[in-house]
Amino acid sequence: MANEQSAPYICHIFVCVKSRQGERKSCADGNSPEVKSILKKEVKIRGWADRIRVSECGCLGLCPHGPNVIIYPQKIWFSGVTESDIPEILARVEEEL
Ligand code: FES
Question: Which atom belonging to ligand 1 lies closest to the Cα atom of 25?
Fold first, then answer.
């Protein structure tokens, strides 16, 4: 039986890195793996790593609008994300600290 526990993070940032290699649109087409890497680095630089987790994830179901980045449990969704949106995403996360 699984052990249920409360969330260890204030925010969990999920970055869709799904790639369909051109078969049809997917978030990796928009450089989402690099967005994830930058977010991870910035969270670490800011000293948030014990409270904020950045993880890559698979398809979130909004592929035509990607790259998609979501923040939970706040239920915040960013679509059409580029590297230039990272400061806005981090500012939104900072509001939760
Ligand atoms: S491929 Fe990212 S939401 Fe579907």
Answer: 1
The residue count for the chain: 97
Nearest CA residue ID for atom 1, ligand 1:
26
Q: What is the mean pLDDT of each run of 10 residues along the chain (97 residues)?
A: 95 97 94 97 98 98 97 98 98 96
Q: What is the reported pTM?
A: 0.94
DSSP bridge pairs for 77 = 70
Q: Kindly give the number of the ligand 1 atom that is closest to the alpha carbon of 20.
A: 1
Tell me which DSSP letter residue 10 carries. S
Q: What are the residue boundaries of the structural domains of the chain, listed by start? A: 11-94
Q: What number does CATH give the domain 11-94?
A: 3.40.30.10
